[in-house]
Amino acid sequence: MAGGDFRPVYHPAGHDNELRVAVQDLRTGRWLSMAHLLGRTDGWGLWTQRTQVLAAVAAGSDVVQAWRAEEPHSVAASVMHTRVVVERAVRAHRARHPRTHELWQEAWAACRDAAELSPADPVPWVCLLALALLDEHRSMDEHRLPPPGLMLPPGPWGMLAQADKRDPHNREAYHRMLQFVCAGTPGPLTGAANFVHWAAGSAPPGSAVHVLPLYLSIERYRRERGQEKALDLHWVAEDAVRDAGHALDTWFRYADLRRASPLDLNHLAHALWGANRFGEAARVFDAIDRYWTTLPWAYRTRDPADQELAAEVFLRARSRSLAGRD
Known about the structure:
Blueprint: H1 17-27, H2 32-39, H3 44-58, H4 63-70, H5 75-94, H6 100-117, H7 123-132, H8 157-166, H9 171-183, H10 190-202, H11 212-223, H12 238-252, H13 262-274, H14 278-288, H15 307-323
């Protein structure tokens, strides 16, 4: 696998074989595999992860609407409807679409309905956290609540607490919160740094929350527009090396890698490679296998929109790390 014939593959499902089948069926307009998959999904963490991936695929079609029409009393179909309308609202906001406010209102109502229909499910609250990003001026009271700790910024802490109560340290909930904090910080990301270290400080071994500091490091790098520097000190700075080691020791060593987010694995491999910890990075590349993600590798290129350039960086990092294996 280390030879020149190795080719990385991008797929949103990563190593989740069952999810890959459901995604393939979704792309052809069929919902039955999705319904069966969600019906046998155990654990809120995996439920959150799978519904997020499925919604990103389904948002461009009416396949979930067809499922709801066929099974109007299905709780899973209602949750997926919520996921889809939230995804559409977020995309509309990103594209500055004129219907953004209308879609936002529809998505907000769907979240509230899903929270009532499935009160133990963290996903409606995760979705509300995703919609909080659309409130750019922080005009809603729910989005500027006082924080639970010192040095943390105001924000949608009530929504995070509701998700946390249902699935402690839910990966997507904490990522949505980080996105909210970063979006409200045009300058130095001090509040975001305080948040990720506060979050990781209480997370148990094996929790993906321990990977959050690596995402913040990428965001800092992106804002500094540091691309393809011959000697990039960002990744060998003391805090970057420490955060990479922390994620390795507290997440990777304990996590069920078959269910790990491909993004988390790629961020950890990237951080260890950047910190010149090649032998440890090689172990993470082994776990990634062929299922790479364009981020964070794209930010190490001259054109982050060019997937081929990102793949070249991934392959270069992988080759160097495997060569440095202990």
